[in-house]
Amino acid sequence: MKIRLSIATLVATLALPALADRLPVPGNPVYVEECGACHLAYPPQLLDAHSWLHVMNGLDKHFGTDASLDERRRSAITDFLGRNAGGRKTGVTADAKGQPLLRISDTAYFQRKHREVDAATWKRASIKSPANCAACHVNAATGDYSERSIKIPK
Ligand code: HEC
Ligand code: HEC
Questions:
Q1: Domain-embedded: residue 17
Q2: Rounded to an integer, what distance in angstroms lies between the CA atom of residue 76 and that of residue 33?
Q3: Residue 59 Cα to ligand 1 middle (Å)
Q4: Residue 80 in contact with residue 102, Cβ under 8 Å?
Q5: Terminus of the chain with fewer CB atoms < 10 Å: N or C?
Q6: Is 61 inside a domain boundary?
Q7: What distance in Å separates the CA atoms of residue 121 and residue 130, rounded to the nearest whole number?
Q8: What is the distance in A from the centroid of ligand 1 to the CA of 129?
Q9: Nearest by Cα to 88 from 133, 56, 52, 46
């Protein structure tokens, strides 16, 4: 019995990285509150630690807005993102010159997964931007990016 249980655990662990459509945000109320205020609290798994560090070091100039935090919250969220950053899933998230990318939607992983979405679709008024994950992934807030949970709005 004991042996069977641990084999089951091992199989489950090995299977995890293959589940590309499940990206739950590890429980962290401060992250969800602060970084889910204007957009989805993005899955930390989709940028590497270097990219997250750059996002967190530039919050006063955050994609045309000011998302500054007090130092305690900023450093707690930076630690959280670093601990849960991509790596195996996304590889290094840097541009050709080695500069860390700040956008999930600029990463090779994202672009590969969204090959079939054309430029006009991204610009629809109901979508606005690739950053608006939940426009199409209707259960994104629970980390569900599976094909059956996609509804591309008109
Ligand atoms: C005051 C509003 C606001 C807050 C708070 C905020 N953001 Fe953003 N964020 C934005 C805007 C605006 C964009 C650009 C969206 C677009 O391009 O459509 C953005 C984009 C992003 C992107 C790039 C998305 C992509 O792939 O294109 C990341 C990553 C990101 N934010 C992380 C964070 C993190 C981490 C926090 C918490 C520390 C945070 N944001 C808090 C407004 C905010
Ligand atoms: C215009 C609608 C749209 C938007 C916006 C969008 N996606 Fe997607 N996404 C899709 C489609 C379509 C697919 C491909 C589904 C397939 O072929 O299985 C996909 C696939 C994915 C996958 C792969 C799932 C798998 O089964 O391997 C992930 C992960 C994902 N999207 C994350 C995101 C994230 C994170 C954002 C926001 C930063 C986002 N998407 C924004 C439409 C969208």
A1: no
A2: 13
A3: 9
A4: no
A5: N
A6: yes
A7: 9
A8: 12
A9: 46
Structural domain boundaries, residue 28: 22-149
Residue nearest to atom 42 of ligand 1 (CA): 38
| Residue in the structure block whose two tokens are 């969204």 | 114
**Cα(103)–Cα(130) distance, integer angstroms:** 10
Give 3-state DSSP helix, strand, coil % of the chain, rounded to 5.
45, 5, 45
- Asked if 144 and 22 count as a contact pair (C-beta separation under 8 A), the reply is yes
* Best mutation site among 47, 55, 104, 133 for ligand 2 pocket (most ligand atoms within 8 Å of CB): 133
14 in a domain, yes or no?
no
- Dist CA 119 CA 84 (whole Å): 31
What total number of domains does the chain contain?
1
Name the pTM for this structure.
0.91
Tens-place pLDDT, residues 57-83: 999 999 999 999 999 999 999 999 999
Is position 15 within any domain? Answer: no
Cα-to-centroid distance, 13 and ligand 1 (Å): 31
pLDDT tens for 89-101 read 789 999 999 999 9
Token output for 101: 């990318």
